[in-house]
Amino acid sequence: MAAGTNTGDAAARRGETEKAVARFFSNRTAAAGLIVLGVIVIVTILPGLVTRFDPIGMDLPASLQAPSAEHPLGTDSFGRDVLSRVLHGGRVSLGVGLTARTISLILGLLAGTIAGYFGGRLDNFIMRLADITFAFPTLLLLIAIMAVVTPGMGALSVALGAVGWAAMARLVRAQILSIRGRDYVQAARAAGAGHLKLIVRYILPQCLSPLVVVFTLGLGMTIMAESSLSFLGLGIQPPHPSWGGMISRGIPFMRTAPWLTILPGLVLTLVICSINLVGDGLRDALDPRRLVPPKGGRK
Amino acid sequence: MGRFIARRLLLLIPILFGVVTVTFIIMYVIPGDPVLSLVGERYDEETLDRLRGELGLDRPLALRYIDYLGRVARFDFGRSFVTGRPVLDTIQERFPRTLALAGAAMLIAVAGGLAAGAVAGSGRVPWVGKGLMALTLVGVSIPVFWLGLLLIHLFAIKLEILPPSGYGGGSIRYLILPALTLSFASMATVARVTRAGFLEAGSEDFVRTARAKGLGERAVMGKHVFRNALIPVVTIVGTDFGSYLGGSVLTESIFGWPGLGRLIVQSILRRDFPVIQGAVLFMAILFVLVNLIVDISYGFIDPRIRGEGAKE
User: Fold this and answer.
1) Chain B residues closer than 8 Å to A265 by CB
2) Do the chains contact at A228 and B18, CB–CB below 8 Å?
3) Model confidence, pTM
4) Which chain B residue shows the shortest CA-CA distance from A294?
5) Which residues does residue A81 pair with via DSSP β-bridges, in sequence order?
6) CB < 8 Å to A296, chain B
7) d(CA B266, CA B4)
8) Which residues of chain B have pLDDT under 70?
9) Which residue of B has its CA nearest to A140?
10) A255 — contact with chain B (CB < 8 Å)?
11) Which among A79, A101, A270, B10 counts the fewest CB atoms within 10 Å?
12) Which candidate from B26, B143, B291 shows the least CB-CB separation from A144?
């Protein structure tokens, strides 16, 4: 009997997923966001597709050239191709962002599950820790952490990931509290399922959609925070390219070579924008009840 | 109401305690010896020991922690490694400027956000509403430091109508660009929330009643819909206050605004840990207090909140 319901579940879930995918792609702005993001991800993973220049090696005679056919985004003060640096910087930004979100997800899942499932004093303690994390302005907390550690990609990912744990934990906990008491969970418990099996098999799969949404929406914020830290010199260190760092080092040349600050920022904004569009689209597709009627209530 | 406020105040104690503890941990437990970074590359063991003694770094961690708690309770944030001045003095000198910047930004965000949200939410001019909503997406996605540089590029370098940076002795001309920069993300959020409030209120019974009793559209919008949409904006301003503080670090460094945010960046470059610690702690406590005030004022505006607080 158990096997029968399982396959039924799986089929139902697959149907739901298909519907959600259809809903997502019927949302034109979300689909556009996904396409833009996809293109950017592909060219940052394979920069060789669009540029043959080295992002780090210097070519001083070619410094501060305006955008041209040879260098579509111009060159910086060391004669490095800006397009190549933007692409390599994007790889770093996206990589750090995804790593940090994964760290937040793991920490949040652990803490939120323990708090929500077991409750009691442990729950109280974990949630107070979350309150304390929320009590700090996020960027300020990150600045304080990165000011004392040796900056670099690893430290940056861990700091960004650690700071994001609380939001994930609150979400997981709330989901678990609402699922824990459902009939099918009770039935599974009565049938002798242990804690671990109950959590992993019956409860967590139900939390998947909100987690996907929060993971995506948080990715935009994380990349923004990463670039802010790199802008302040607390993130990715030169000579490695990063969007924030490129913008920061372009400032002295704003009058003579404005593309050095404007173009990397444009790509950065485009990436965050499309991640946010995808996140909004996912939220609407996975939870249609929250859809706001497009025309409002009038007439 | 009295019990609601008392409860909120009680909750404040563990939070403040936690904030102070986290700041302590970050500055003293995380790898990286402040003394080593203080003396730089060239040093001898004798100087190191002397400095450690002066800063009390040779004592056990638990003692230092208790000592730190005591000092923070007396608002003693220590002295700057670099200038030797008490950190609190510097904060008192810098903070009013950050407050002026954040206050101006908040004013712009609320006024601009309400206006944009009302236009988009009332649905009068659909294409303007759509354009405004697209702009709010950009608003929440654009990094504050890049926006600041764009504004400098446009208004100070190309058009030459506003100064690119500086404090100008508090002249309003110097305030405009940084305040606009700092306000942008929050303005977008306020606009989104206001629009949502308008759309929601449009289908509420009390609005239909107001229309049914023959109230003009202007009065319905102004008196009923707008007021109702105002409530969540209060929360936004509270939660966004943290991004004003964090954003002020970026905005102030770009515009050379001599506030707390710029102080933090300068202190990081000089490895002046007591100043970083003091300024971060000060801002975090401020953020906690602002959220407390928002919570309490929310209880005044909406009686349902009080009930929820008491039930828990």
Assistant:
1) 143, 146, 149-150
2) no
3) 0.86
4) B199
5) A75
6) 121, 123, 198-199, 202-203
7) 41
8) 29-43, 53-58, 202, 223, 301-312
9) B246
10) yes
11) B10
12) B26
CB contact under 8 A, B18 and A220: no
Q: Which two tokens stand for residue B165?
A: 């940076």
A272 contacts chain B (CB < 8 A): yes
Domains in chain B, ordered, with CATH? 94-311 (1.10.3720.10)
If one counts the domains in chain A, the total is 1
**B277 part of contact set with chain A, CB < 8 Å:** yes
> Which amino acid, B291?
N
Handedness of CA B112, B116, B117, B122 (dihedral sign): positive
Query: Tokens for B211?
Result: 């229309």
| Contacting residues for A52 by C-beta, under 8 A, at least 6 apart | none
Q: Is residue A220 part of a domain?
A: yes
**Alpha-carbon distance B294 to nearest alpha carbon in chain A (angstroms):** 14
Contact status of A124 with chain B (Cβ, < 8 Å): no
Q: Does residue B177 contact residue B255 with C-beta atoms inside 8 Å?
A: yes
By the 8 A CB rule, do A77 and A47 touch? Answer: no
Residue A202 makes CB contacts below 8 A (sequence gap 6+) with A184, A185, A188, A193
DSSP-assigned letter for residue B258: -
Phi, psi of B294 (to 5 degrees): -60, -45
Q: State CA B229 to chain mean position distance.
A: 23
Rounded-to-integer distance, Cα B193 and Cα B189, Å? 6
Contact B263, B98 (CB under 8 A): no
In the block, which residue shows the tokens 């294409």?
Answer: B127
Query: How does pLDDT run along chain A (299 residues), one tens digit per residue?
Result: 344 445 556 666 677 778 888 888 888 888 898 999 999 988 888 877 777 777 777 766 666 777 776 767 777 777 677 888 888 888 889 999 999 999 999 999 999 999 988 888 999 999 989 989 988 888 999 998 998 888 888 899 999 999 999 999 999 998 888 888 788 888 888 888 888 888 888 888 888 888 888 999 899 999 999 999 999 989 888 878 889 988 998 888 888 888 888 889 999 999 999 999 999 888 888 875 544 444 333 33
What is the residue range of A89's domain?
26-44+85-284
CB A143 within 8 A of CB B22: no
Instruction: Give a yes or no: residue A66 inside a domain.
Output: no
**What SS3 state is found at A75?**
strand
A218 reaches B (C-beta below 8 A): no
Interface test with A, best of B57, B149, B264 (most A CBs within 10 A): B149
Residue A208 lies in a domain: yes
Residue A202's identity, in one-letter code, is Y
pLDDT in tens, A145-202: 998 888 888 899 999 999 999 999 999 998 888 888 788 888 888 888 888 888 888 8
The rounded distance, in Å, linking the Cα atoms of B260 and B264 is 6
Chosen for mutation from A139, A140, A242, A274 (greatest number of chain B CBs closer than 10 Å) is A140
**For residue B53, is it left (φ>0), alpha (ψ between -120 and 50) or beta?**
alpha
Min Cα–Cα distance to chain A from B128, Å:
14
Could you give the CA distance from residue A157 to residue A143 in angstroms, rounded to a whole number? Answer: 13
CATH number of A96's domain: 1.10.3720.10
Kindly state whether residue A290 falls inside one of the protein's structural domains.
no
Q: What's the rounded Cα separation, in Å, for the pair A196 and B21? A: 34
